[in-house]
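Q: Two folds, back to back.
A: First:
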Amino acid sequence: MGVMSMDKNKEAAIKAERMINGLGQDGRAFINKWIGFAAFYEGFDGRDERLTLINAVAGAFTNDEANALLKVHQAEIEYLFDLPPGDLRYEGDESKFRHQTQQDIYRACNQKEDACMRIGHLVAVIYQVRNNLVHGAKDPTTLRSQDLFLASDKIMSSVLGVLLEHANPA
């Protein structure tokens, strides 16, 4: 094995260790919830995963449930609105960096939009946080990452609560 390969391996191992150790409680809780959520929406057909999860979530909520969730999570939604997560496949100064999440968070905040679709678009914003983390582009140790994990975890707790309620009605 060449010197460059050893350096690359060491760099990759350091990054992996940082991901594992840097997630923190909120990051681990968020990922655990997302794993459960993925089991929900993977059964829906769609050519685009983002659109599939938007439609799956929107179809699973009643308007009353959606409105209640949006009200409860106003602080988290405002946090995501103020600075939507970027797509880390792009550089921060590229127009595509926040393009999709800005559109999704605007739709999630648009009170003229159907409440169920608003929840779908809110989850699409969280999907970007998940993508950045799962694909290794996110530094989990930053304050911004921890804040995103916390906001995402709180919202996903409520989303999963509604979905599980439907699976096990009282």
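A: Second:
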Amino acid sequence: MTVESAAAVLTPLPEIRVDRLFRCAGQKKHLTQRKIFITLNRAKRAYHLKQALSVKATYSTADLAKLFDVNESTVKRWSDTGDLECVKTRGGHRRFSVGSVLRFVHQHKFSAPLLSAEGIKNENLRVHVIAGNIHKLAPDLKEEILAGNVNGALNIVRTAFAAKPSFLEVCSTVVFPPLCEIGDEWHAKTISIDQEHVATNTVKEALTLFQSEIHHKGPNGLKALCACSEGDLHDIAIRCVGYYLETEGWHVTFLGQSTPSKSVANAIRTHKPDLVALSATIVENERQFLHRMNNDIHPAASRMRARLAVGGHTIRARFGNRLKADHLCDSIAEFESIANPHNYKHRKNGQNTARQSA
């Protein structure tokens, strides 16, 4: 098949850059059938995905009444009480941004399946999302992050959240699976390191934008320290934990990737957190890891009467009682109970005494 004949197949699809196919060919006048097949399918998938996940910039009162299955007067009442933020046009009509709608859904624990599926044209995907099967969005998110499309990734996360308004569940069900697949593909050398970096940074940008859109509770007076253990460069999971804690009213200090254990211990003494959350996604030397955790970090957290939570894949089975910590977390979802402020009320007096003496 020639490049020209392949390009002719693409012309019915608007917004597809046909010149990309020519760049793929380089100086060659012909492409292999396999190369043409892969290129065409990627182009078509990108186009249909963009159409499937187009989200409105703003919604009218009538739009939201239909999507929430309520009367327009109910939407206006939500707006008048300040629960649902809006702006008014010159004609006095209310307009609701995507961010304000997501904050409302999150704050009031609404499940809005019709809102989540509102922009989805693919009927099969639409049915799954309405039913709450948000894991079906993971393959589409993988496509977007590999392409470096922050807005596309953000829209998919928004869609998942509208169907299941739980930040931790969206992360564990929609965000993490494609990242794990991309990591496996990089190890298998089927994708390059630059592709893996593009995907990782796209996810980080999309999650940062999304976190700023959803509802944040007022300050609860609790502080958390989040970091990756020494040698661990995978910080997306611990970032998600930090973002979640911030939406719950915590003050979060994030130390970043591969933080030396003595630096973590020093930060505990400096910031005096109520919770220390550490990511141990990659542990290459178990003996060294246990020594650092049990001799540097755990004693520092204990002196400040701070809870220590260590997360990572199969960390319970791998370390069990050998690792000194209050919580060993195989899943990010466990932080929903760990972050509950009621778990820390009885510790306040003891913490204040320890901090004053420190």
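Q: And?
A: Residues 6 and 36 are 7 Å apart (CA to CA).
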